[in-house]
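Lesson 9: reading folded outputs for more than one chain in a single document. The general rule is that every protein is listed as its sequence immediately followed by its structure tokens, and records are never interleaved. Here is the first one.
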Amino acid sequence: MAQGKIKGMQAKVASARHAQKAASNTKKGQRAVPPKKQVLIKQAQLHKNLSAKINKSIEQQMVNAASAGKLTIMKGIAQPEGSTSKKGPSKKITSVKS
């Protein structure tokens, strides 16, 4: 068995020049340069806050719309109180311990 490294198997040392070249390549995607002027800074902050409020409002409306109807998963288990079922008592799921 060989005791030392084989010439062809030695790891090549990454040069600083290669690292610098790799770092200089631009990445894909949109860039956002933060504004420098006070007026533009305030405008950007206002836009950010309004966008957050609008998104939160839309999410709340979606939650309300989704929870307005009956849950179809629990349809056979629970019914609203005060309503009588013509089919008889609802089925209850019991857990079986093994």
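And here is the second record, again sequence then tokens.
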Amino acid sequence: MTTQSSIEEIKEWIDLLIGKEVVIEVNKGRKRTVTRRGTVEKAYPFFFTLRMDIDGSCQRISFNYVDILTKTIEVEVL
């Protein structure tokens, strides 16, 4: 992901990713990270949702735009 400096830029970028497959790396603290692959499903004013197949079941997970700004999560387009 390129470096975004504001939440508005991040929202616009996520809007462009709707329907595309991405890899999300979530920082869980104490040097623990979780990497997941999914599709950006919808973008709302304060968060966006990702659809993922985890153990054969479809799950939806939401993330805040602030998480990207603070580097709690990293989004990479496939």
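What the second record shows: The longest strand covers residues 32-43.
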